[in-house]
Amino acid sequence: MIRKISAEETYPVRQQVLRPGRPAREVFFEGDLEPETIHLGYFDADEIVGVATYVGRKNSFFEDSLQYQLRGMAVLPDFRGKNIGEALLLYGEKLLKNNHPEVLLWFNAREVAIDFYKKYAYRTIGDPFMIPNVCMHIVMYKKL
Ligand SMILES: CC(C)(COP(=O)(O)OP(=O)(O)OC[C@H]1O[C@@H](n2cnc3c(N)ncnc32)[C@H](O)[C@@H]1OP(=O)(O)O)[C@@H](O)C(=O)NCCC(=O)NCCS
Known about the structure:
Low-confidence stretches: none
Bound molecules: coenzyme A
Strand content: 35-45%
CATH superfamily: Gcn5-related N-acetyltransferase (GNAT)
Number of domains: 1
């Protein structure tokens, strides 16, 4: 049910969940088209209902030589609470760890999603900050 997809295939879910009412160009994230970037899609029949993207990016909070950033984690409203977010997160962790045994995964978590990530042992670091036109975020991370 989870497969690698293209950047473009993530855009409808990103738009609906993460950038509703915002210009279409805002669903494109820096790093989307880099060769080592991984986009995952959760399929319900032929429909992509959940997405997550992993970009090779360092954050200055961490000294680890290998760091990936999770971006654009989103599940369509009708499909939430069915462990799809969990499945995407765990699948991504496994994939990254298989490829890079020493990888650190970090991301800018929306404040409303902090407790979701805490369930999977992610920790916060630093102060909350605003991403303009979106909402408050805080950096979270885990050494995989
Ligand atoms: C956050 C999100 C990805 C979670 O996906 P989901 O498929 O609904 O979550 P799951 O069904 O896999 O939930 C797994 C567990 O986390 C819990 N959980 C889910 N969302 C949560 C939240 N926002 N806060 C706290 N706990 C949450 C669930 O209750 C479940 O717990 P359980 O195993 O004890 O029953 C989804 O709600 C979403 O897309 N939200 C809007 C966009 C967003 O905030 N994305 C994150 C950007 S950083």
